[in-house]
Amino acid sequence: MTRALRDVRHMLASTGLGLAALGLLLLTVFALILCVLPPVGGPALSNIARLARRLADRQRRRVEPAIPSPYTADPVRIRDVLLDPTFWRDTAWLLVYGPAGLAAAFVWALWPSGLQGLVTPILYRLLPASADLTFQALPITSPTRSYIAVGMGAVVLVAAYFLPRWYRLGEARLSRWLLSPTAAARLNARVEQLVETRTAAVDASAAELRRIERDLHDGAQARLVALTMNLGMAEDMFDTDPATAKAMLADARAGAHSAISELRDLVRGIHPPMLADRGLAGAAEALAASSPVPVELDVRLDRRLSAPVESAAYFVLAEALANAIKHAGAAHIGMSVVDESVHIRLRVRDDGRGGADARKGTGLRGIERRLAAFDGTVTVTSPPGGPTQIEAVLPCGS
Amino acid sequence: MRVVIAEDLVLLRDGMVRMLTAYGFEVVAAVDDGATLADTLVSLRPDVAVVDVRLPPTFTDEGLRAAIAARRAVPGLPVLILSQYVEQVYARELLGDRAGGVGYLLKDRVGEVREFTEAVRQVAGGGTVMDPDVVAQLLGGGRSAQLATLTQREREVLGVMAEGRSNAAIASRLVITEKAVSKHINSILTKLDLPPSDDDHRRVLAVLAYLGA
Predict the structure, then answer these.
(1) HSE on the CB side for A81, CA within 13 Å?
(2) Same-domain status, B144 and B120
(3) Do B9 and A222 make contact, defined as CB atoms within 8 angstroms?
(4) Domain of B37, in residue numbers
(5) pLDDT tens-digit readout, A277-312
(6) Do the Cβ atoms of B110 and A222 come within 8 Å?
(7) Which residues contact A183 (CB under 8 A, 6 or more apart)?
(8) How far is B8 from chain A (nearest CA, A)?
(9) Residue B169 maps to which CATH number?
(10) Whole-angstrom Cα distance, residue A373 to residue A318?
(11) Which of A221, A226, A232 minimises the CB distance to B84?
């Protein structure tokens, strides 16, 4: 029953879209004619082309599976529109889908018609003889005929139930034929995406280099300079003021310790030794073990991935974990790494306060950028009040 | 001797204040960014400023630019620049106004406490102090045609001379007599077409100018 309802709703929408398509088709023709006067026709055409895109995109989302949108540049000048193959394909779709969408009306109209058939005997009895009752071209002039109408109504209802499936299949095929991006458009879109993600990857690694340089400059390097200063003064005072010299040597040793541990942290940040030795599984364990908030770890991965993938996955886990510890105020964190052969699924959940937003936090943006280079995706669900879940899917070429 | 220190890392700033104070300098201000530095130098007019090249907000050459700006307002204001790296361009910009009283040292030199404090005094006195690494880089790059005419010993003398050392210091460093040093120097200046001079500072400037700084 719900399915029948859903189908009816779909058919109704198709009818509406069909009407809109016919309207837009007329407008398109009108705008094309207006193009003899470019100052008027130009804006008209580009606006109508945009409307057609919106309508077509709507249809792309309606069919299952959804069709990707093929558009690249916004159509501004007449030239853009006329030279754009997607415009002509959209227009062809308007032409074909107008009648096809309207045809849906005949399909959903089967429901009221079938129901009318079922109640024909009652209608026959209630209505005066002069009412000229007919059912599907059958004049109901006798009680027998009214019972025949019941049978016909039942058949119509069965058709009303099944026809939409055929209709939807046909509609999807038609739309796919005219609305799918052409091979060239798909290639274009892919190239564009690759350029974008490559830029992001380059930016990310440049930012990473800057961070490392800053960490070294402000950290270990500064400590070593301070250390030589202490040592130099200690050396100079060794004979004249042994007590001060000794204090300075102690300072120097403490400084050396700090420099060593800062270097160690930095190295761990660049390429964690656990990641190099034990792979992602081991590194995830190390991350969980070093977390101040208890982490429930679920690792289903028993192979080594390629080094860049391991390193990106580790970065995601470390960043997401750091977020949960620092910002969420979580009492409990769940972390999972699942090998799904062609990709690897990473998930970090916490029971903290939620409200994480990728647009605000640089950490989440960092994760997005890092993953984009691998065609990976990240989904953040974090309603205010929590819980927060960060899920990343990273292709790993099996 | 009144000193202004500019260094953004607390650790180093405190260390430097402590050290210079221990060696008889009076640290009148220790600042941590370029804008404050320029203002402080002009208002306090210290005897010498010890400045980290890299300061907030840009963390590039903020310190150097602030020092150069201050020297424009107060000509000849002695400035010793400290840097984590040797950068010829910085040395050239610093020496640009030819007014003297400048130094350019690698940061690690602060560890050689005596030499470092000596360098601060030298700069305060209007001298020029270049880090041996800077000099080595300058000697290494370009001007090869005329540099090639120098003997090995002359090149060594040139290197130490460019660091701002006096004849006596050059002599003791290279373990030769002072007379030999002045002979070498005359020969160098002649070969490089530089005007002879007795003043240490002018001599260094001439050499550095020749070397392309």
Answers:
(1) 24
(2) no
(3) yes
(4) 2-130
(5) 888 999 999 888 888 889 999 999 988 888 888 888
(6) no
(7) none
(8) 9
(9) 3.40.50.2300
(10) 18
(11) A221
